[in-house]
Amino acid sequence: MGFSLSDESKNITYFPTLLHRTETNNIKKERITRVLESARVVAHYGWIPFVLYLGWVQTPNRPPLLALLSPLPSV
């Protein structure tokens, strides 16, 4: 009373196929590309406001934030 596998069941692989790995790698590459592109945009538009904020925070007599954003000179 032995147990034998049919020819079809011997060919079944339980590991991801090469096609699945390639699709997964492409998805990972797309996500990494999107994250890096978003980080580049944030760094591009946020660098100068960040430097201005650091200078404003470390000033002993801080002007009001609204006065900094106003195009009119403060009196």
From TrEMBL:
Keywords noted in UniProt: Membrane, Mitochondrion, Mitochondrion outer membrane, Protein transport, Receptor, Transmembrane, Transmembrane helix, Transport
Record Pfam families: Tom7
Q: Which domain of life is it from?
A: Eukaryota
- List the InterPro entries hit by this protein, alphabetically: Tom7 (IPR012621)
Cellular component terms (Gene Ontology): mitochondrial outer membrane translocase complex
Kindly list the residue ranges recorded as spanning the membrane: none
Give the membrane topology, semicolon-separated if more than one: Single-pass membrane protein
Family recorded in the similarity comment: Belongs to the Tom7 family.
- Name this polypeptide is given: Mitochondrial import receptor subunit TOM7
- The species this protein belongs to is Cyberlindnera fabianii
